Amino acid sequence: MKLNELMGRILRFRDERDWAQFHTPKNLAAALAVEASEIQELLLWKNDMEVLEFVHSSKGRSRLEEEIADVLIYALLLSSEVGVDPIQAIKTKLVQNAKKYPVDLSRGNAVKYSERLQPEPGRPEIRRGGSEDEMATPAQKPLFPSDFPPLV
């Protein structure tokens, strides 16, 4: 199914129930945030292994699919309400992100672009993470080093 067909089904569902009157940008943004938080709630207090088990269980997968669908539906409804083409918005964002996160600086590195160390003129760039971490100043090292004793 193409996006425009899917959008038509979502809008028909909404319109058959006369819900457009409630779908203001503010309300749709709030609904989107609530549904996204329901995904977080499903995974709350689980470690990575428990999350994997949950996602691979039939009940967990079903619940996660429901919440992801809700998030996507509200995102598409919000896009429609404010006149944003979601496909074009994604294409534009991918171009922007490619500039912010070039492969050579970002591969295997979760540091946000605005937190990446900027090189001084004439000096090579130092990046956090990997083997170059030793070159970082103490303020850039992790708050809790790997040899920090666990809290019990």
Structural notes for this entry:
This protein is mainly alpha-helical and 152 residues long. The protein has a domain at 23-100: MazG-like (Helix Hairpins), CATH 1.10.287. The chain is built from 6 helices and no strands. The protein has helices at 3-16, 25-43, 48-56, 58-82, 86-100, 103-106. Helix 3 crosses helix 4 (58-82). It is extended, with a radius of gyration of 22 Å. Mean pLDDT is 85; it is low at 130-140.
Question: What keyword list fits this structure?
Answer:
152 residues; mainly alpha; Helix Hairpins; 6 helices
List the helices and strands and how they pair.
Elements: H1 3-16, H2 25-43, H3 48-56, H4 58-82, H5 86-100, H6 103-106
Helix pairs in contact: 2-4, 3-4
